Amino acid sequence: MNIINIEHISKVYQVGSEEVHAIRDISLRIDKNEYVAIMGPSGSGKSTLMNMLGCLDTPTSGKYDFTGVSVSQMTDNELAKIRNKEIGFVFQTFNLLSRSDALHNVELPLIYAGIPAAERRERAEEALIDVGLKDRMHHKPNELSGGQRQRVAVARALVTRPSIILADEPTGNLDSKTGEEIMILFNEIYEKGNTIILVTHEEYIAEHAARIIRIKDGLIEADTPVANRYIPKAKSEVNQ
Amino acid sequence: MSGIALLSFEFKESMMIALRALRANKVRAALTMLGIFIGITVVVLMMTAIKGLNNSFQQGISALGADVLYIDKWTWFTNVPWWEQRNRRNITMADYEKFKSMAKLPVAIAPSLDTRQTVKYKDQSVESVSVEGSDAEYIKTTNLTFEQGRFFNEIESKSARNVCVLGSQIADDLFPHKNALGKNVKIGPVEFKVVGILDKQGSFILGDFNPDQRVYVPIGTVFKYFSGHRRNSISIDVRAAGTGAIENTKAEAEGIMRKIRGLMYNQPDDFGINQQAGLTDLYNSRVGVIQIAGIFITGLSLFVGAIGIMNIMFVSVKERTKEIGLRKAIGAKRRTILTQFLLESSFICLVGGIAGLIASILLGLLVNQFLPTSIDYSVVLIAILVSLITGLISGFAPAYTAAKMDPVEALRFE
Questions:
Q1: Does pTM surpass 0.90?
Q2: Hey, is the C-beta of B12 within 8 angstroms of any chain A C-beta?
Q3: Smaller CB count within 10 Å for chain B: N or C?
Q4: Which domains does chain A have, with CATH numbers?
């Protein structure tokens, strides 16, 4: 099934009197249960594309259908609703609320979805157990390691059962061992039937995905399946 | 969820989020509250003081009686210049006698003449006391009541006996721990016997008019002992049969006075017919302005508090840019963010305001020892409403800034 269908989108920013073509002409389809990595050097339009895919921004021209619904003309509030229900974000800098514990952080998208408190709590607990943080639910971000923080963020992304997980450099702030643990988590999520879009500039992280889309100068340079996908292996110390 | 259920859900959740944010920044929230606290405290205190002054003024002039006319050489409130009034003929006892025989409508008519004297009892003395000379009917033109004794009677006033009635303050000053009734006090150089002591009237403002600080004697004694006053003009105090009759009584009095004074139809009145209402008007026009200025000045401190809130809320929004970006990214609508920040600022103001209200009520009790204060329940309501509205208004601009943030930009903010 087709989740993302983009046809000839472009994005033009006005910087002073100059027009910057962040995206010139991109067409793209992503199906359900794909694991896609988007790669590109900085300034390639990779971030703009990611914002577009994440419904944080709308294209200047072109068509964007998300799960069959056209989002290219939506208002801010309509986009907020789509983001809330359909997209799970994982950021490089985790973006957790520093003064709230893990549980409340994971509950947050459910609050905006209007889920009653009891159900919210139950689902947030489940999501935290799924990412292996059963014993860390009431810890605040500053009481957690980097890897654990990113797990909280992953739980927050999963808790709404979104159509896609959109991860922007999820291992960028982690050491390679912890990063690898997060990639194992992503692999598990993928194998459970989720759709993952991974934005990265590191080749070996991208090779965890099944398909790599390379962006350059606002255009797709290459869109190729990964012949020899790297499947990370869970080590004994990973699930604590 | 239905619209209302969803709104109340959002409201409740936004409240929780706002409370969390406040708890996370306790010191800052408390300092911001302090601004509103001080603002509300001074405004409410000002309002209670004004209310107290107004009450005591009303109480004070009620001693004058709303249905009493004071016929006097001087018109109290007029644009006739004082030097013209000064050249008017004096009102004499003869005028009073004629007036009394001609007037049909009044229920009581009494002459009065005021003099300033030192009043003494043994080593206690009060200087510059307003000593009011009158006759037995005077008491009927007032609403005065007695703590002890009586007013002087007709025989005493006609024969100008040395008897006097003391206002409660004068009695307290001269006889701190003793009963004044039947004692002899010295008014000027002359001894007078105390026949009555008035109840405390409790008026605060009226000064010379305040019966608490006056002494009443038969008018004949004023002419007899305080001779300089013989040339003075008396006043004729006229009580109408109720406030409804006051206009007719006034018209009759004017006609009679013009006849007594022999005025031609084209000559203006050379006397004034004064009443309490004029005093109220004057009070409102003078004191009212001062009161409005007082509210305005204290209101400024509330305004400064409001600016403080706005300032802090702007800082808070700026500081939490990334958090706002995240909230928007994971699905917070503009409205939700707006509500969250508005609730935060209104909560600060409401708590500060209520604390200020409580403080001002307590302070009001303290101030009441020196100045009359009076708290009105409407003031409580107004104070709470004002602090809430202050929170909403001063929080709106920062909250709106937060609500319309672009999530992409906000997430990138460091």
A1: no
A2: no
A3: C
A4: 2-225 (3.40.50.300)
